[in-house]
UniProtKB/TrEMBL annotation:
This is Fe2OG dioxygenase domain-containing protein. One of its GO terms (molecular function) is demethylase activity. One of its GO terms (biological process) is demethylation. Belongs to the alkB family. InterPro entries: AlkB-like, AlkB-like_sf, ALKBH4, C1-like_sf, Oxoglu/Fe-dep_dioxygenase_dom. Transmembrane segments: none annotated.
Amino acid sequence: MPMQKQLLLRHGTFFLNQVTRHCSICEACGICYNGFNYTESGRGIDVRCASISEPFVHQSHPHPLFYTTPKGVCSACNKENNYVVKCVEDNCGYILDFKCALLPYEVKHRVDDHFLSLCYGENASGKYQSVGLFLVPEFVNVEEEQELLAVVDTRPWIGLAKWRVQHYGYEFCYGTRNVDTKKKLGELPSFVSTILERISLFPNLGNDPASLSLDQLTVNEYPSGVGLSPHIDTHSAFEDCIFSLSLAGPCIMEFRRYSVSTWKVASTTDAEKSSNSSCIKKALYLPPRSMLLLSGEARYAWNHYIPHHKIDKVKEKVIRRSPRRVSFTLRKVRNHPCRCE
Ligand SMILES: O=C(O)CCC(=O)C(=O)O
Ligand SMILES: [Fe+2]
C-alpha cells in the first residue's frame, strides 16, 4: 500500500496510518474498520474506500460510474449518502454509495454451506420476498446502534417474567395481545426519527410508504436464552407492515406455518400449536443492525418465533447468542376493523 495517496474524495494528500482503535468508522462508507486507514486533516478513510478509482465499474450497471458532486440516494439501499459514485449517462441516475459499491460479489456465511451471491435486477427477487418477508442488513451503522442502545438504557424498562420492554405510542397489553386505541401515550420518541425516515424509503413496500405512519414502538430486551413463543401479531391490533430492528446481538427467528386455520392462529394456544406437528418451519438469521419487515403472508399466515436457546444450531453450525439482544418493533395501530374477521 502506498504511504501517500491522492483520493477522489477531496484535494489533499492522504497518509497511510496504522489504526490503534479496535473499531473506527470510515468517513466514506460508515462501516467499522481496523488495521490501516488513509487520513487527511485527521479524517479517516478505510483502505477499501481509498481504493475506489474512476471509472468505477460495477456488475450491477452497464455504464461506468464516477465520483461527481457528493451526496445522492443510493439506488441499491435507498439511503442518502455523502459519498457516492454516479452514472453520468443522460437520464440514467444510477447511484451507488461507497458501502454498496464495495460489497463483495460473493460471501460465505457460517449459517449456510453455500456461497451467497450479490444479486440485483430480476435475480434479486429472493425466495422470502414472495411471502412479504424482507431483511435489510446494516439498516443502522455501529455508531447509530450504540446511540440507540444508550438512549433506551436511560429510559425506564418494564420487567416482564423473562425479558424487559418499553412501549411508546401505545402500550401493548400482553394479556390481550392488543392495544387500547383510546389510550395514546404520545408520539413516537425523536430517537426513532431517523429509523422512520429510512423506513419510508424502504424498497418493495406494497403500500404507499407515506401512509404507513407507524405509531407504536415496543423495545424488547432479551437476555441470552430467552425468546418469544410462536405467535402472529394480532390482526385486529396492527396494520399489515411490522418492522423489527435487531440491536446488540443476533438471533434466529423461526417461521412456522401450521396447517390448521391460519387466519385464526392468533387465538390458537401454545398447547394446541405444539400438539400440531404438521407445520412447515423456516429459520432466518437476524444479524444485529438488520431490519426485518413482515408483511402480507409472512405477517398473517406464518407464526414467528424466537427459540428459547442460548445456542442456535443452523445446519449443524453452532451460533452462540450474545448476552443481550434488543429489538425495536414498529407497528401501525389499526383504527378500523381487520378485513379478515
Ligand atoms: O424481537 C423481535 O424481533 C420480534 C418481536 C415480536 O415479534 C413482537 O413483539 O411481537
Ligand atoms: Fe411479533
